[in-house]
Each structure stands twice: as structure tokens, then as C-alpha cells.
Amino acid sequence: MKKVLTAALLAVLTGGVALAQSAPPSPPAGTMQPPPPAQMQQMRDQLMQLHRQARASILAALTPAHKALFARITGQLAVADRPDCDAAVKQLNAALSAPEKQKIMAAAQTAMAKMRAMMPPGDMGPPPGMGMGMDGMPGDHAMARMTAGDILLLLARLSITPQHQS
């Protein structure tokens, strides 16, 4: 009886080793597998929709005169030999009213919260407390330090970056 139990145990153990060797290796702990292409496309579409909504909310916060100023400043930055983004941010912040600034900040914070909620934990973004993420988006502390003028210039940059359609 002892030999039968030993043989059965040995068969189970060796069978388990054989199965473990034939199965694909598990990813190292703490690493993420990329989502399937269809899921990636769906997330991309959702992010693009979120960007369009945020852009519309932010631009709606501007008076017609400030919208024209924003267009003029971003146009000047685009053709300048040495664009001075800091001066542009200061000029925008000086021109915007307090309600405009509040609406811009609220729209940006809402969009960032929605974006982060869509991302799986540990995905592409910077660790808490870091500045810009690998995706060029501001991290937690960088976002907290941004002004309405910073957000407008970030919006302009993101709005003119070519979007690859599939």
C-alpha cells in the first residue's frame, strides 16, 4: 500500500512538473500584460472623446475676446524663433478673469480624474508626486501647480498634435 501511495504521489508530482514546463511562463510579478488591441482601441477612443469634451468645456469658459487672445498667443508661439511659453502663460493668466480661471481649472481636473479612472493601476502615468508622465500628461503634483494659462497652452499642444486614425 505504501508503494502504491508513493507511486501515485510521484505521478502527480512529475505530471505537475511536466505541465508547469509546458505552460507558457508567467510574467514577472509586478508587470502588466498589454491589453488586447481591441481594448486598446476602445480606450484610445474613450480618451479622444474625453479630450474633445474637456477642450469644449475649456474653450467655452473663455470670453470671445480671450478666445481671440488665446488664438493670437498660440499662433505667435507657433512661428516664434524662440517661443517663450512662460511669458505666454503669464499673459494669459493676467488677462483671464477669476471665473474663467475657475472654470478652466475645474474642467481640467474633471478630465484628469476621468482619465485616471480609465487607466489600469500602474499604467503609463507617473508615480504620485512626480511631474510629467511618459504620455506627456502632468502627474499629480504637476497638475496641482498648473495655472489656467498652463492648461490652455497644454490644450493647444494636445489639440494640434496629429492623431493617428486607424
Describe the structure.
The protein has 166 residues and is an all-alpha fold. The chain contains seven helices and no strands. The protein has helices at 2-22, 37-60, 64-79, 85-95, 98-118, 140-145, 148-160. α2 packs antiparallel against α5 (98-118) and α4 (85-95) packs across α7. The longest helix is centred in the N-terminal third of the chain and has 24 residues, at 37-60. The chain is elongated and about 50 Å long. The termini are far apart. 14% of the residues are buried. Mean pLDDT is 76; it is low at 4-23 and 126-135.
Class derived from helix and strand content: mainly alpha
How many β-strand stretches?
0
Strand/helix succession: HHHHHHH
Share in helix:
55-70%
Overall geometric form: elongated
Helix-strand blueprint:
Layout (H helix, E strand, L loop, with lengths): L1 H21 L14 H24 L3 H16 L5 H11 L2 H21 L21 H6 L2 H13 L6
Helix pairs in contact: 2-5, 3-4, 4-7, 5-7
Salient structural properties:
elongated; 0% strand; 166 residues; mainly alpha; 7 helices
